[in-house]
């Protein structure tokens, strides 16, 4: 029992938060009657959608001889959707319970329904599919936090792009929230021309649900693109929430644009970054969609390249430096993670440790 009491809950050995929701797929990529294998927090997960359209997620290991269930097919079993293992045909419902073992003969002492695989609660909304990864893999408890909520959104995104970063989730998160790299890494002329020069930025940060926000402000003068697209009176709000969601809302009286970045840890040094973009009442953006998408991809590639370069150093050294105020957000991310683990370990309510503060830097 003493050991149990010391065990930290709410985080895996690899440093990924549990009892948390992770983005796993764009709805449009999950066709009815199909399923696929995906690594999530170093575990194989089958993400699928039944013929009737319900998304589901099961551990992608058949308990019989461990082959991936995702390699099988979906079949109907007494009116219920099931996935049939390709090896010996055991069938599992979307609730993880085994419904059929074809080899059984009358009088065999086995009850298929006593066997089950782990299920992951699934939430699908606005064209996005999330799964809940509970701390305890043996149980299937009610999620302790509701699925992520990014405010009012259109039914589906305008576009979704994703890229695999060769980085631990923590390094990927920190890389994306780092304001100091922008003038060096994202200095394409239409976004941040070198002639823009450095300006002093002063931004008000405030605590929000399991994270923080840069309160509504006018976007920085050196982002030409926003001005061109929206005209006057534009405000920006940027939010971060653990385990790894960052979203930016740009809006004025008529139009709004929301860019959401979701991070999903797959393996120790493999993190999927998915960028999901919504907008409404912005006809100019509809016209620009064909160039908007490659532009967003360019941003991600630029960040991915820095991650690869960073790996060159990480082979030889672990220690990094953190400089105020530019790296305060990176520190907050760590502080939030520790607070999460503390709360989960004590089975207590999560308390946001972040205090409102103004940060200043040059970028
Ligand atoms: S391995 Fe799945 S049924 Fe045998
Ligand atoms: Fe970046």
As a percent range, the share of helical residues equals 10-25%
Which CATH class of the largest domain?
Alpha Beta
CATH topology of the largest domain, which one? Naphthalene 1,2-dioxygenase Alpha Subunit, Chain A, domain 1
Radius of gyration: 23 Å
**Alpha-beta content class:** alpha+beta
**N→C terminal distance:** 52 Å
Total E-strand runs: 18
**CATH-level-2 architecture of the largest domain:** Alpha-Beta Complex
Poorly predicted residue ranges = none
Approximate strand percentage: 25-35%
Number of helices: 6
The ordered H/E elements are HEEEEEEEEEEEHHEEHEEEEHHE
Structural domains: how many: 2
Domain Rieske: 22-131
Keywords: 2Fe-2S, Iron, Iron-sulfur, Metal-binding, Oxidoreductase
InterPro entries: Cholesterol_7-desaturase, Rieske_2Fe-2S, Rieske_2Fe-2S_sf, VanA_C_cat
Organism: Ponticaulis profundi
Q: Would you write up a description of this structure?
A:
With 363 residues, the chain is an alpha+beta fold. It has two domains: 2-133, Rieske Iron-sulfur Protein; 159-362, Naphthalene 1,2-dioxygenase Alpha Subunit, Chain A, domain 1 (Alpha-Beta Complex). It has helices spanning 2-6, 169-176, 182-185, 224-230, 283-314, 328-345; strands at residues 20-26, 34-40, 43-49, 55-59, 73-77, 80-84, 91-93, 98-100, 122-125, 128-133, 159-165, 200-208, 211-217, 235-241, 245-251, 256-267, 270-280, 357-362. The strands form four sheets. It has an eight-stranded antiparallel β-sheet. A four-stranded antiparallel β-sheet has the order 5-6-7-8, with no helix packed on it. Strand 3 and strand 4 form a beta hairpin. The relative contact order is 0.15. Bound molecules: FE2/S2 (inorganic) cluster (FES) and fe (ii) ion. The site of FE2/S2 (inorganic) cluster has 9 residues, from loops. Residues 22-131 form the Rieske domain. It comes from Ponticaulis profundi. Keywords: 2Fe-2S, Iron, Iron-sulfur, Metal-binding, Oxidoreductase.
């Amino acid at each position: 029992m003493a050991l149990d009491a010391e065990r930290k809950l709410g985080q895996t050995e690899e440093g990924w938060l549990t009892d948390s929701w992770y983005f796993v797929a764009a709805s449009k990529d999950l066709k009815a009657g199909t399923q696929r294998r995906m690594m999530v927090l170093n575990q194989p997960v089958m993400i699928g959608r039944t013929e009737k359209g319900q998304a589901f997620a099961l551990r992608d290991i058949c308990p019989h001889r461990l082959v991936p269930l995702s390699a099988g097919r979906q079949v109907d079993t007494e009116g219920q959707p099931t996935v049939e293992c390709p090896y010996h045909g055991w069938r599992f419902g979307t609730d993880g319970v085994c419904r059929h073992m074809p080899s059984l003969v009358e009088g065999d002492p086995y009850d298929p329904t006593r066997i089950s695989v782990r299920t992951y609660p699934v939430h699908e909304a606005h064209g996005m599919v999330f799964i809940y990864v509970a701390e305890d893999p043996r149980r299937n408890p009610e999620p302790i936090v509701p699925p992520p909520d990014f405010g009012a959104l259109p039914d589906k995104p305008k576009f979704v792009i994703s890229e695999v970063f060769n980085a631990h989730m923590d390094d990927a998160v920190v890389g994306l929230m780092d304001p100091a790299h922008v003038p060096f890494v994202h200095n394409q002329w239409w976004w941040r021309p070198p002639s823009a020069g450095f300006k002093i930025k002063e931004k008000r940060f405030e605590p929000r649900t399991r994270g923080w926000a840069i309160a509504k402000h006018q976007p920085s003068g050196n982002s030409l693109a926003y001005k061109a697209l929206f005209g006057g009176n534009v405000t920006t709000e940027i939010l971060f929430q653990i385990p790894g969601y960052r979203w930016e809302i740009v809006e004025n009286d008529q139009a709004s644009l929301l860019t959401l970045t979701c991070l999903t840890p797959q393996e120790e040094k493999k993190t999927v970054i998915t960028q999901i973009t919504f907008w409404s009442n912005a006809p100019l953006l509809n016209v620009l969609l064909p160039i908007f998408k490659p532009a967003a991809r360019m941003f991600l590639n630029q960040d991915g390249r820095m991650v690869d370069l960073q790996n060159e150093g990480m082979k030889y050294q672990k220690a990094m430096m953190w400089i105020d105020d530019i790296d305060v957000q990176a520190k907050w991310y760590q502080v939030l993670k520790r607070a999460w683990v503390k709360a989960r370990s004590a089975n207590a309510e999560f308390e946001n440790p972040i205090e409102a503060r103004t940060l200043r830097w040059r970028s």
